[in-house]
Amino acid sequence: MNDPYLTLGLTADADDAAVEAAYLAGIKRFPPERDAHRFEALRRAYETLRTHRDRLAYELFDTTPPQAADLLDKAAPIGASRRPEPALFAALLRGET
Amino acid sequence: MGPLSEEESLLLAAWDAERREAPWDAEEIWEGYARYLIHEHSGNDPQGKPSLRIALALRRCGRVAGTPKEAASFAGVQELDDSLVSQLEESLTWDPDDRATYLRLIDHYRREKRPKDARRFLERALERWPQDMQVLDAAFGIAITAGSFKKAAGFARRMLTLDRINSEVRERLVEAHLAHARKQIIKGRSDLAHKELAEAREWARSTQATTQVDLVAGLLTLREDAAAGAPVLRDLVARLGGGLAGHLTLALAGEALALSPQVLFKRIGLAKPTVDGRDDLLATLAKLRVYDDGGGELTDALGGYLSLALGGGPWRDLSRSETEAACETLRRSGLYRVRRQLAEIALKRWPNEPLFELHAFEAKYPRQHYDLASDADLEHLQEAGERAREDGDTRTAMRIEQAIVAHAPLPFTYLSDDEPDESDEPDDPPLQRDLVIMMIRTVGLKETMEAMGLPPEMRSILKKLARREGTEAAAEKLLSFLEMIVDLADRKDKDPPTPRPPIRKPAKAAKRPAPRRSDAGEGQDKKRPRQPDMLG
């Protein structure tokens, strides 16, 4: 299993609300019709970390070694879109920056 | 990096035990970890204790045991043992809000037929989650098991208020009302039975549910007025196709009211049923499968009745896959005589087919571990097993091996590939160690010991050893014990040509499990004491 914290782009001290917010943001960015694999990973990660009890159980019982995919998640964590703002595009085209 | 703390060492040991798939070690270490946490924080404010961590550690083994994935790797802990149960119970004092643990405990006590304990946890769960479907479903199941059908109907109704279009719950509500109606019929309270039937009819939507309501109503009418009830039931059987499948449906409804099929059919003037062609045969088998899936067990009376009717069925019209499925259904229903007959027909059509050889053998020796097979039959089956393995049919080959283990006289010398050699070393044990281990892995240590008739003290010692050092260690001990018995038997009893080792006999005859059921005339049904005939 991939590291669910990395999949959701969370730190280890995330609370219930943060987990839910990250999950909702993630599935908005990667709906199942666009990226089924990523969507499934997000769902699994959410189920693993949903409650305080779940997060503690993950900490106590999960012994899965880090996966290659974790490195990718670490390199490109889920977060705000990195696409430049349209205004910046326009400015670049006008040669203003 | 400094030395590991005690907590870290315990965690590492627990993870290692899980990695090694050593369930008993894992259980002990996780419990040790919980005790460590309790002790470490004993002086602190109870609020400051890592309660959730303690609860999770305590319920770790109890929760994983029994889940399909873990049951495969944690062989031997599919059923909760006493210490796991007490750990689960204790975990609720540290974390009383874990619904899954309540459901696990309720399910455990229900399986163990300890309704008081099941209700103890159910009440607590209902207090916390009065509107939870899973909790209500557990409550419904317990009420049905206890025969409290009115209460069961109440829980089903509560589920329906939460999910009005849930057809499964609706069916269960109908079944609860029907069960209550049957109870009232048996008690002679026709008025209350009518009331329950009216309730059932109100909720019944599917054809199957309405048929069931009609059947019970017809049987009630028969009880009140035989002349009026008989044509109602005859019409019902005709509506159900008129063949054996229809007769079986009525007979099962009658069985639930303690009415034997012979008495019932005589009372309503129905002729002896015969199988009305291939479709009727398949429909009858399908009904038997559904009945078995629902946990129903045929009584001797009904089994005998069916055996007679099925005996003349058009078995040759079935395809090979249908014949295989039919053999399996007959096995599950305990109709050994018909199964044997079908297997023999199948062997004429598909000679030497290992699967049908297995069915023929098992039907001839239906009581596992108690019916010792003849050498010729065992040899024949062993050859079939070899053919199955050569054909790549591993599943049948394994089933055949298990059948041989279950029916061969211990210590399974029969299966030895080597011919007995006079020149063998005297200390070479004639025991098939792998087979005993396979048996333990297949049916579990407890069942193996019971099948071998080991004395209770020995069983207790081995069980403790298994918990302490693992199943393999207990198996080794058991093997050593068997070898010792075999040595003693060899020394003491060399004269008879085929000595049966004394261990084969269970310590107490009374402890032998009764066969699930036998075909007609092979004994009374021990499991279901007959109710008085409700027709008087």
Which labels suit this protein?
heterodimer, A: 97 residues, mainly alpha, Helix Hairpins, 2 domains, 6 helices, elongated, B: 536 residues, 26 helices, flat
Tell me what you see in this structure:
With 97 residues, chain A is an all-alpha fold. Chain A folds into 2 domains: 1-64, Orthogonal Bundle (Helix Hairpins), CATH 1.10.287; 65-97, no CATH class. Chain A contains 6 helices and no strands. Chain A starts with a helix and ends with a helix. The model of chain A has no long low-confidence stretch (mean pLDDT 85). With 536 residues, chain B is mostly helical. In chain B, 67% of the residues lie in helices and 0% in strands. The radius of gyration of chain B is 28 Å and the shape is flat. The termini of chain B are far apart. Mean pLDDT of chain B is 79; it is low at 66-78, 412-429 and 495-532. Chain A binds chain B through residues 52-53, 56-57, 60-61, 63, and chain B through 11, 15, 18-19, 52-53, 56-57, 60, 95, 98.
Oligomer: heterodimer
How do the helices and strands follow one another from N- to C-terminus of chain A?
HHHHHH
Task: Report the β-strand fraction of chain A as a percent range.
Answer: under 5%
Can you name the CATH architecture of the largest domain in chain A? Orthogonal Bundle
Main beta-sheet annotation of chain A: none
Return the structural class of chain B.
Answer: mainly alpha
Q: Quick one: CATH class of the largest domain in chain A?
A: Mainly Alpha
**Overall pLDDT confidence of chain B:** 79
Name of the CATH homologous superfamily of the largest domain in chain A: DnaJ domain
Nutshell version of this structure?
The complex is a heterodimer of chains A (97) and B (536). Chain A has 97 residues and is mainly α.
Topology, pairings included?
The complex is a heterodimer of chains A (97) and B (536).
Chain A lengths: L3 H5 L7 H14 L6 H14 L2 H10 L6 H8 L10 H9 L3
Helix pairs in contact in A: 2-3
Chain B lengths: L5 H14 L3 H18 L10 H14 L3 H6 L8 H13 L4 H13 L3 H14 L4 H13 L3 H14 L4 H21 L2 H14 L3 H18 L1 H14 L4 H12 L5 H8 L8 H17 L6 H12 L8 H14 L2 H14 L4 H11 L10 H16 L3 H14 L25 H11 L1 H8 L3 H14 L1 H22 L44
